[in-house]
Design goal:
By secondary structure, this protein is an all-alpha fold. The chain contains two helices and no strands. The radius of gyration is 14 Å and the shape is elongated.
Length: 59
């Protein structure tokens, strides 16, 4: 029997994934594995993902 996640669990999972990615981007910049422009693009993208998830919660 497969248990499907609730919508809330799915949203939390999406937010956790985006937050983890933000941490990875910041770590990559700190250790010189990503240039500032690339990091800026990733941060903008991931911030957008978090904003989209929060918008879903508000609906």
């Amino acid at each position: 029997m497969e248990i499907k996640p609730t919508e809330g669990q799915t949203l939390v999972s999406e937010n956790d994934t985006a937050s983890d990615m933000l941490g990875r981007v910041i770590g990559s910049v700190m250790y010189g594995n990503m240039d500032p422009e690339e990091a800026s693009n990733w941060l903008e993208h991931e911030a957008g993902e978090i904003a989209n998830t929060l918008d879903k919660v508000r609906e």
